[in-house]
Amino acid sequence: MIYLPNGQIFGSPDIEKLDVRIDEMRVQHNVPGAAFLLVSGDTDLINKGYGVKSLLTGEPVDPDTEFQIASITKSFTAASLGLQMEDPNNELSWKTVVHEVLPEFEMNDRFIRTRDVLVSDLVTHRTGIARHDIIWYGLRYSREEIMHRIRYMERMWGFREEFHYNNLFWSVAGHVAEKKSGMAWDALIKEQFCKPLGMSRTSFSVNDLDGMVNVATPHDRVGKEVRPIEYHSIDEVGPAGSGISNIRDLRAWLQLHMNNGKYAGKQLISEATMKEMHKIQQEIRIRNEERKGMPPLLSMGYGFGWFIEFYRGLKVIHHGGNMDGMTALVFFVPELNIGAALLTNLEGTPFREAVMYTVIDSFLGPQADGKQVDWSSTFIQQEEENQAAEKKHLDEKLSHRKANTTPSVPLSEYVGTYTHKVWGDVSVSLAADQSLWVKMRGEMIAKLEHYHFDVFAAQWRRHDAGTMLLNFVKNVDGKVMNIDEESYFGNFNRISDQPASLPLIPPISHSPIPAKPPRYQRKFSFYHLRNVPT
Question: Of 182, 215, 452, 504, whose CA is between 20 and 30 Å from 388?
């Protein structure tokens, strides 16, 4: 029996039935493979793999199979900062002004004063700056260059007024940890936590996968078809999400947090620091229109590297991760003394949320109305509705196309280099076959198709970057001077009549997939890229 502080009594779930249900849900969500850990206190209730590491090889997943854990990495970065703060000689706290540690860090003072930004603001998603994931996800700027370009970003929401997820400032938090410790961020995490916790197969770059065995292959979906894809490096914002691990290692990470900083009888990080990490630091407002089909949450917020929500009266502490071809989740419920880790090799699947609420409900029993919610079907329906809404959004956008128009100037007059302080240069060139091409850094390259007037459609080769409409704007003399992309990038100013040579940085390929894997384009708007969760 489980006794809660409020006097409620619940029985233990049927673990065999839960085990079977988890695999059923995996199949329903078309997830090739998953590893799942469920602990009650120090006891493993479930610790196993389901499905396969790769649809190409059919090799089964086991508890040691490596997956990208993406944004679960944030909990490591936050804990690293918290542990450094316990050193009285370090002169670091959550209230430390970031600029005092990193003089090179600056904000756009028209919107947010640089000296107002504290370490706590870096790790609570409340700066008011949009997430701008394209700067690392597609353009592949270095961590140092990303920090430099933050000063040109304009505020979209009030500073500290609302929660808006942002990976960039976690990268800056990693710089803070490095500056105060004198160690590289990933080496610091390994020294502080991986070594004492025995997390020997946890690493923080896809480069570390070279030569490693028992590694899951990432997969993505085209409609209902699931395909293997390449690994995508996230080293550019490593402290936000470059972690790689397995459920055997994550068991130790869970135990550390469930036991308030203690592991194997030793207090590795203070209980006070842990409680601060697990406390709501920034409220997350749940709008009524967002509640449809979602769990009945009383409230929700963000701590330091953890989401905190109150589901059916219980505090649930969790963080997910999502990267190309991988989805992950770690969560624990202090009042039930249970914790879990779920790793999968399919991108963006709500299977993880379905598992979390199904597990919690298995301990709590039916809802207050006596009904048992089928979370798997609920989240599948929600996903289908979201995809339909995205398609409708794109269809509406494309419905404004005017027929029978032609460019107002010869294609050669669009050729040149255009620039933006945040995004850098855009190169427009004319190929020998008279096709027009646009190129940015990284993986961002596209053939331009005439849309109407002086507007061209760019469908990026980056497999999930979607389609953008580029409007070439002329001055009063009829010369093309700007590119305006209204949905995401904004305005690029022309700086040269010659196309620039920009670096092509392909993704890191580790998976045993064909040398020329099948490429495809999802017909999503660029909204999809703005909402890449890590």
Answer: 452
- Is residue 492 within 8 Å of residue 360, measured between CB atoms? no
Buried b (16+ CB within 10 A) or exposed e, 493-514: ebeeeebbebeebebbebbebe
**What six digits make up the tokens of 234?**
């996230």
Q: DSSP 3-state assignment of 245?
A: strand
| pLDDT single digits (tens) 292-322 | 667 878 789 999 999 999 999 999 999 999 9
Strand partners, 37: 47, 341
Span 485-497, pLDDT tens digits:
988 899 999 999 9
Place of tokens 């459920």: 247
| Helix pair angle (15-28, 351-364), 10° resolution | 160
- Can you state the angle between helices 351-364 and 375-398, rounded to 10 degrees? 150
Question: Residues 6 or more apart from 248 whose CB is under 8 A from it?
Answer: 37, 47, 63, 64, 201
Q: What is the DSSP letter of 216?
A: P
Q: How far is CA 416 from CA 437, 442, 474, 480, 494, in A?
A: 11, 19, 13, 9, 7
Q: How far is CA 434 from CA 277, 407, 431, 499, in A?
A: 57, 14, 5, 15
* Beta strands in 250-403, from DSSP E residues, in sequence order: 262-263, 266-267, 282-283, 297-302, 307-311, 314-323, 326-333, 338-344
Task: Say what the pTM is.
Answer: 0.92
Residue found by looking up tokens 């400032």 in the block:
169
User: Does the structure show a pLDDT above 50 at 71?
Assistant: yes
Q: What is the pLDDT of residues 21-54, one digit of tens each?
A: 999 999 999 999 999 999 999 999 999 999 999 9
The set of residues, in sequence order, having a beta carbon less than 8 Å from that of 277 and lying 6+ positions away, is 75, 78, 79, 82, 303, 304, 305, 306
- Tokens (6 digits) for 161: 């007024």
The C-alpha angle with vertex 244 and arms to 70 and 202, in degrees rounded to 5, equals 140
Provide the terminal-to-terminal Cα distance of the chain, rounded to the nearest Å: 37
Dihedral (CA of 272, 273, 277, 278) sign: negative
Q: Which residues contact 411 (CB under 8 A, 6 or more apart)?
A: 430, 434, 436
